[in-house]
Automatic annotation (TrEMBL):
Component of the MCM2-7 complex. Acts as component of the MCM2-7 complex (MCM complex) which is the replicative helicase essential for 'once per cell cycle' DNA replication initiation and elongation in eukaryotic cells. The active ATPase sites in the MCM2-7 ring are formed through the interaction surfaces of two neighboring subunits such that a critical structure of a conserved arginine finger motif is provided in trans relative to the ATP-binding site of the Walker A box of the adjacent subunit. The six ATPase active sites, however, are likely to contribute differentially to the complex helicase activity. This is DNA replication licensing factor MCM5. It is found in: Nucleus. Residues 336-542 form the MCM C-terminal AAA(+) ATPase domain. It is an enzyme of class 3 (hydrolase). It comes from the Eukaryota. Its main location: nucleus. Belongs to the MCM family. It comes from Cyanidium caldarium. One of its GO terms (biological process) is double-strand break repair via break-induced replication. One of its GO terms (cellular component) is nucleus. It catalyses: ATP + H2O = ADP + phosphate + H(+).
């Protein structure tokens, strides 16, 4: 026997490539079976019919629920989660093969059993979009372990770029020999590397870098980037919201707008980032950090499926049947309106009518679309105008927590662009894109604006359109568009001089233009009334609240116990009897609705109920509006009215009436709802428009209207006698004013008021007065 010594024979088996091709063929075959044979219950073929319908309509996309894929083929679902890029490519090829086999577009839908050539499959490209109802992964918890895996995130779109064309298949041609080569570009931020040597370099002796791109023969697809920010309710207190860059392509572009809440399914990936590409970011940290720049990459999500966060077409409803039944029982609870009102910020004593108004604001009226395309807003805007330390900010904070969608901001730290929208230049591409402000991000919810009076006038003017038309029109840097801002506004402000002055009229103390005041449905004037009995009640409530918190803390501590002191919140007998009769389980031991259940009930009602006015309610509102206009017109003859009464206020009463009907899940607003809406309107806006003419606080203190007029006349005389910057002794001032037949009591009261407003101040050991302003 002879051996071939020193010789080695090698056979190229391509076992790894063949195994991969075999696995890809298996995934393709299994997805073809899903499209052709999957049924949902007794329904027809879900994805087969969807594919036929979409392709015939010119929409070459197939939307697949991940849960359906999991139920039909668990192995294929697991493979998609672990290797989404490779498996998704095979699924799209399989969908294109199904289109050819079904002969869609030819008028026939007979299934061809034979496999199709790859060229025909490539020509009939179909985009497979993956949707899911899994719990979204928090953006701030995305880490390296999720790289190259399928994940689902949720958030608010804050910016969206223009749609651009991105190459998918690039045709290259050698400048020397004319050889052509087609290369595939990676998805997302990926690209392709141009070969430095021609494939025929050995034959034609082509130089290095011979290829040039033939754009006319290349294939492109629509491509867009989107900036997604964490949901406000998911951001920990004191933390800055995190953002994630998203890329969308083909049929997914232009599906989202800034301010919209979405959930996106995609492949968590990384890209070089602007700093690494430009060399100006990470290299500036330390010298010679090229290795660091190459190693550190920015994360992004290559989106393969997107839908609004609350999609009514969702087959997995947000509310379970048990929850819907519980809420239906709760809507029939006796004294429901009072129970809900008592559940609004129960730690705050009093403020019953402002709480009821905010409750109506949370439920909102019914949006209406007229035949000519005009929209009538259903959101209710409320302004709380009051003295310091009257719990206005606490009401705003509670509203932010209880509203399903909310954004809290302060007027002093907010600009017009921050409230509406701004145009930002992208540092990497130089292009302009939109970033939505607070009112855009709160679309479908409530915007809470504290310190509303501290805003600049120009910034308040910027939200006029957003408050009434509920849109924001942008025409900047070549971008002309309209954004939705369907949000209610809850604002809190102080009067012009810090606190209300009973000796002044309301028009002098409300420093807002009528254009902004008319856009508020309800305006509450909240005064810190000096009354001994009221002060004792408030002090008792505050102390009881602190004692209750201390008792609960003692009870939760090791070895702690709860004493027998009475609780600060006691449910009424009517509420407890109603809860027992209806079997409602949404009330706690205090007879109040917990915060989380109240939020869920508000979200459920806003989605499922849109009441309309009954004829009796409409007639009642019509008559009341005419009478209110007559009364205000008569009052305007004596003193200026700071809050105008226009047709907008009639629409405000309609929205309040509808909101009251919404609370009990009624489809019709009754006359009783209209009466309560009119009562709220009278104690709020009408009272605000008349406050100061004959102040209730002044009358309670024993001051007559004649004396108040004398005080106002004394103020005018003091201003004429004592110019700004002048100094005059008190004795000389009293002598001069006495010649105008003004009483000493009125003069002293006027001086007291002006000293409180810092218009004048004492000098020379309180013997002389100096005019400050």
């Amino acid at each position: 026997m002879e051996w071939d010594g020193g010789q080695v024979y090698r056979s190229e088996q391509r076992l790894v490539a063949q195994a991969a091709e075999s696995e890809w063929s298996m995934w393709r075959r299994r997805f073809v079976e899903l499209v052709l044979h999957f049924r949902s219950g007794a329904a027809s073929f879900v994805y087969r019919d969807q594919l036929v319908r979409n392709v015939n309509a010119g929409h070459r996309a197939l939307y697949v629920e991940l849960e359906d894929l999991q139920a039909f083929d668990e192995e294929l679902s697991d493979a998609l989660r672990d290797s989404p890029g490779e498996v998704l490519a095979q699924m799209e090829a399989a969908a294109a093969e199904v289109v050819i086999r079904l002969r869609i577009g030819d008028g026939t839908e007979t299934v061809a059993a034979e496999p199709q050539p790859q060229s025909r499959v490539d020509a009939a490209s179909i985009q497979v979009c993956i949707l899911s109802q899994e719990h979204p992964h928090p953006i701030r918890e995305l880490q390296a372990a999720q790289l190259d895996r399928l994940t689902r995130v949720a958030g608010i779109v804050t910016a969206a770029s223009k749609v651009r064309a991105k190459a998918r298949l690039v045709t290259l041609m050698c400048r020397h020999c004319g050889h052509r080569r087609v290369m595939q570009a990676s998805a997302g931020f990926g690209g392709f590397a141009v070969p430095r040597a021609c494939e025929r370099a050995s034959e034609a002796q082509c130089p290095l870098d011979p290829y040039m791109v033939l754009a006319d023969e290349s294939r492109f697809a629509d491509w867009q980037t989107v900036k997604l920010q964490e949901l406000p309710e998911a951001v920990p207190t004191g933390e800055v919201p995190r953002s994630l860059l998203l890329t969308l392509d083909r049929h997914l572009v232009d599906q989202v707008t800034p301010g919209e809440r979405i959930s996106a399914v995609g492949i968590f990936s990384t890209y070089a980032g602007y700093a690494a590409r430009s060399g100006s970011g990470a290299r500036a940290v330390v010298a010679g950090a090229d290795a660091l720049v190459a190693a550190v990459r920015a994360p992004y999500l290559r989106v393969v499926g997107v839908r609004p966060a609350e999609d009514r077409r969702d087959r997995h409803p947000t509310f379970t049947p048990e929850e819907e039944e519980e809420m239906a029982r709760f809507s029939r609870l006796p004294h429901l309106y009072e129970t809900l009102a008592r559940s609004m910020a129960p730690e705050l004593w009093g403020l019953d009518d402002p709480k009821r108004a905010i409750l109506c604001q949370l439920f909102g009226g019914s949006r209406k679309h007229l035949p000519d395309g005009m929209r009538l807003r259903g959101d209710i805007n409320v302004l709380l105008l009051g003295d310091p330390s009257t719990a206005k900010s606490q009401l705003l904070k509670f509203t932010e927590r209880v509203a399903p969608v909310s954004v809290y901001t302060s007027g002093k730290g907010s600009s017009g662009a921050g409230l509406t929208a701004s145009v930002i230049r992208d540092a990497a591409s130089g292009e302009f894109h939109l970033e939505g402000g607070a009112m855009v991000l709160a679309d479908g919810g409530v915007v809470c604006i504290d310190e509303f009076d501290k805003m600049r006038v120009a910034d308040r003017v910027a939200i006029h359109e957003a408050m009434e038309q509920q849109t924001i029109s942008i025409a900047k840097a070549g971008i002309t568009t309209v954004l939705n801002s369907r949000a209610a506004v809850l604002a809190a402000a102080n009067p012009l001089f810090g606190s209300f002055d009973d000796a002044r009229g309301a028009a002098e103390q409300i420093d807002f233009a009528s254009t902004i005041l008319s856009r508020f449905d309800l305006i509450f004037v909240i005064k810190d009334v000096r009354d001994d009995e009221r002060d004792r009640t408030i002090a008792q409530h505050v102390l009881a609240l602190h004692q209750r918190v201390n008792r609960l803390r003692l009870q939760s501590s090791p070895g702690g116990s709860l004493d027998d002191a009475s609780d600060a919140f006691t449910p009424t007998d009517a509420v407890l009897a109603g809860a027992a009769s209806t079997g409602a389980s949404m009330l706690n031991a205090d007879g109040l609705v917990p915060l989380d259940k109240l939020r869920r009930y508000i979200a459920y009602v806003r989605r499922h109920c849109a009441p309309r006015l009954s004829p009796e309610a409409a007639e009642l509102l019509r008559t009341a509006y005419v009478h209110i206009r007559q009364d205000v017109r008569s009052a305007a003859d004596d003193a200026p009215v700071p809050v105008p009464i226009t047709v907008r206020q009639l629409e405000s009463m309609v929205r309040l009436t509808e909101a009251l009907a919404k609370m009990r899940l009624s489809s019709t607003a009754t006359a009783a709802d209209a009466e309560e809406a009119l009562r709220l309107f009278r104690v709020a806006t009408i009272a605000a428009s008349r406050s100061g003419a004959v102040p209730a606080g002044a009358l309670e203190g024993g001051l007559s209207s004649e004396f108040l007029l004398e005080v106002q006349a004394a103020e005018a005389s003091i201003r004429r006698r004592l110019t700004i910057g002048a100094l005059l002794s008190e004795q000389r001032l009293l002598q001069d004013l006495a010649r105008h037949h003004l009483s000493t009591a009125a003069i002293h009261k006027a001086l007291q008021v002006m000293l409180g407003r810092h218009e004048v101040e004492w000098r020379r050991q309180r013997t002389a007065l100096y005019r400050v302003r």
